[in-house]
Design a protein that fits this description.
Blueprint lengths: L5 E6 L5 H13 L3 E6 L9 H8 L10 H6 L2 H6 L3 E7 L1 H9 L5 H8 L4 E5 L3 H5 L1 H12 L3 E2 L3 E4 L5 E5 L3 H12 L8 E6 L4 E2 L5 E2 L6 H12 L3 E6 L11 E4 L3 H11 L4 E4 L6 E3 L19 E3 L3 H6 L8 E8 L3 H12 L3 E6 L11 E2 L1 E5 L2 E4 L3 E2 H16 L1
Parallel strand pairs: 1-2, 1-3, 3-4, 4-5, 8-11, 8-13, 11-12, 13-16, 16-17
Antiparallel strand pairs: 6-7, 9-10, 14-15, 17-19, 18-21, 19-20
The protein binds cytidine-5'-monophosphate.
């Protein structure tokens, strides 16, 4: 719920602006108040009247509107909210934010604000993929701006790919993650997710089939319960959630360093599928075919991050949760793993090919803790994540 929360919603100029009307409705249904700001370009797509009618408030449009300055100056406007949301965030608005430009009401508010900002990008695929846009997004994430979406799909311009604005309910979830006072507010959690890539040479690597979907859903669910989440992710197939601190890594050793740097934490969830081995002395040059025979790869063992954190003598998180992806004897193997690693809970699942878990939308898990085993029915990965987040909240009490 967003009861009592105040959202300043900046609507940029893109066809996705029509979805922002629904977003206003969804936010108000959840108890939030919405102060809308409409850019000039935004007015080409939705009318000020429909925006203010849905928001139940005046829509702010002009930097030099003297009535507005008398009622509420642009500086004050930028300070009243719990969160500033830009949806749709066009390539132009994102570039202005990254460059610190302030030449209209929306960009001035964004430069003047001292509250957190969430953007929901929406643009043509090529514009999204352009190095300039990607560079600007990196700058925004360094400035602690959260990003939700964009999604892949058919676009109004007839092309296909990333660039569609996230759906209103996805934006609502990212907003809740950023502002909600949930049972986990004030708690800091680390979540690892995705596979790791262990280089063989500059172009080849060893990896596994983890999509990162379950770990991403867990980070999203924890943030939605109000937790401060540090999300340490390997190269996953799914984009990271909004409202969390994202640390991208490639290898197990980078993941270990990122987790160490993120400590201390109240709890840590190790959902990453970390490669057990890396290639010892990976080549700095591309290995070539040779008449002298096949290359010989020597392996070295990667650090076991879960085990290391679970067995910390000082500064161990109060709750350490591991995953056990098993193809047979799930409960037996997972129970042994829990003892071996020294973690508090193990979330065990069957990843045999027949289960369809890898890359799929559903998961069937068993939670193993001090008091025994708890089997959950087959659920969507986001429902597994929600239940797990609730269980964590209850344990951290
Ligand atoms: O040993 P195994 O890989 O089966 O254990 C799985 C659990 O251990 C997962 O929670 C995984 O994130 C964690 N793990 C880790 N570091 C490793 C290997 C596994 O954190 N090097």
């Amino acid at each position: 719920m967003l009861t009592g929360k105040h959202i300043l919603l900046i609507i940029g100029g893109g066809i996705a602006a029509f979805k922002s009307l629904d977003l206003i409705r969804r936010l108000r249904e959840r108890g939030a108040s919405v102060t809308p700001v409409l850019t000039r370009a935004g007015e080409e797509f939705v009318t000020p009247l429909s925006v203010s009618a849905l928001a139940g408030q005046k829509v702010y449009r002009d930097l030099f509107d003297l009535t507005d300055e008398a009622e509420m100056g642009h500086i004050q406007l930028s300070r009243v909210a719990d969160l500033v949301v830009v949806a749709p965030a066009t390539a132009d608005l994102i570039a202005k934010m990254a460059g610190g430009l302030a030449n209209d009401l929306a960009s001035t508010v964004l430069l003047a604000t001292d509250t957190p900002v969430l953007v929901a990008p929406a643009m043509n695929v090529r514009m999204w993929q352009h190095p300039a846009t990607q560079r600007n997004l990196t700058t925004l994430s360094q400035d602690d701006v959260s990003v939700v979406g964009p999604n892949d799909g058919d676009m109004a311009c007839g092309e296909f790919g990333p660039g569609r604005m996230a759906e209103p309910l996805e934006i609502v979830a990212a907003i809740e993650a950023r502002v909600a006072d949930g049972p986990l507010s004030g708690k800091r959690l680390i979540v690892t997710s995705g596979p790791t890539h262990e280089p063989i040479d500059p172009v080849r690597y060893i990896a596994n089939r983890s999509s990162g979907a379950q770990g991403t859903a867990i980070a999203r669910a924890l943030a939605a319960q109000g937790a401060e989440v540090v999300f340490v992710t390997g190269p996953a197939d799914v984009p990271p959630p909004g409202g969390v601190e994202v640390i991208r890594v490639q290898t197990a050793r980078e993941m270990q360093a990122a987790v160490e740097a993120a400590l201390p934490a109240d709890a840590a969830v190790f959902a990453a599928a970390v490669a057990d081995w890396r290639v010892e002395g990976a080549s700095s040059r591309k290995l070539k075919k040779s008449k002298d025979g096949l290359p010989r790869l020597e392996f070295a063992e990667n650090p076991d991050i879960l085990r290391q954190v679970a067995q910390m003598k000082k500064g161990r998180p109060g709750l350490v949760i591991g995953f056990a992806a098993e193809t047979d004897d799930v409960v037996e193997n997972a129970t042994a793993k829990r003892a071996r690693k020294g973690c508090d809970w193990i979330v065990a699942n069957d990843v045999s090919e027949a289960s369809g878990v890898m890359g799929g939308a559903e998961n069937t898990v068993v939670i193993i803790d001090d008091s025994g085993t708890e089997s959950w029915p087959t659920l969507s990965k986001s429902d597994v994540a929600r239940r797990l987040a609730e269980r964590i909240a209850a344990a951290l009490g």
